[in-house]
Amino acid sequence: MASPxxxxxxxxxxIESRPxxxxxxHLHLSSLPRGLRSRDNVAGAIAILKELQRSVVPSxxxxxxxxxIVFVGFNAQLGTLRSVAGKVHKIFGYQSLEMKNAYDSIxxxxxxxxxVQGRRLREFAESVAGLNAQPADEDGGRRVDVNLLSQxxxxxxxxxxxxxxxxxxxxxxDASGRILPVFRExxxxxxxxxxALCPGVNxxxxxxxxxxxxxxxxxxxxxxxxKSADLGGKRFSLNLNLSAIESEAFAGFDQTLDKARRSxxxxxxxxxxxxxxxxxxxxxxxxxxxxxxxxxIDALETSLLPHLDLGGLHCRFAKLFWSDEAxxxxxxxxxxxxxxxxxxxxxxxxxxxxAVRVARKAGIELLQGKLIDHMxxxxxxx
Length: 382
Known about the structure:
TIM Barrel; 17 helices; 12 strands; globular
């Protein structure tokens, strides 16, 4: 599944030549108090919109990385959209916005007729996809259009990605301070991908584009691993979207493994994918664990912990990203690490000594990041 930020923009581009009849309902959750933007509340909002989808065909729901939600449907009745927005607002206690929304008003929701006001939603979509900050043609790179995007996707499907797959270990720290590798996170090198498949296109500066390619990349990596004869007892993790787990590529990969080999594989699910597709996760997770895989909830932030209940999610690992905010949340990290029985926390993006100190004080024993790689390379104990 591609990034929702990118998918919203791509969808708007697809229908911009025939906008008549298309209406968008934009729910401004990012302007609500942070404490209300819990996983359960957002999942409840998505469930209401999925009910709406049954009567509005075609239609799409986009949960963006900033927790804004955009519903785009054909011939949706305005009265119905207002009623649905009211039901969602009720979930959030009819709370007023803390700040103005994306359209400079204090309304909880906006209804946009794409034939009349499509430009304002398009500009918003470009902003959240990162296009406004980094125009495609200012850095000398090639402008990306639908044709070029299709070409890149086709090249990914037909190319052996073995030489582009890198890894970064997750390490454990033992009682004596020694750093030992536990498993390696596999990922596709963006730079190598650019050079091989799309010279002149800077994917790093067009993150929306790279995110849109993730579905194709997931499938390509799974096909590559299915053909690999040397997986053996290697322990590694894969970042997969829930849609990839239901794909033919994953089924083919799974068939090459026995339960012992699956026990060496950690499947990392991004938090946004979990929230946006929570019912899918609840359906898929028990079967994955039963088959032998370990699950990891990826890309967590300390600000989310008070609103996150990991119980019942079948996850063995929870990966937190280091940040300045995490530096001030040592007590919260220690409390959650002690409370969440059966879940092992990983502190990732450890790029400075403070991250290691906070992790050690909080009792987090699994670390990942450039600093840890440097310490291992130079035999520096913690």
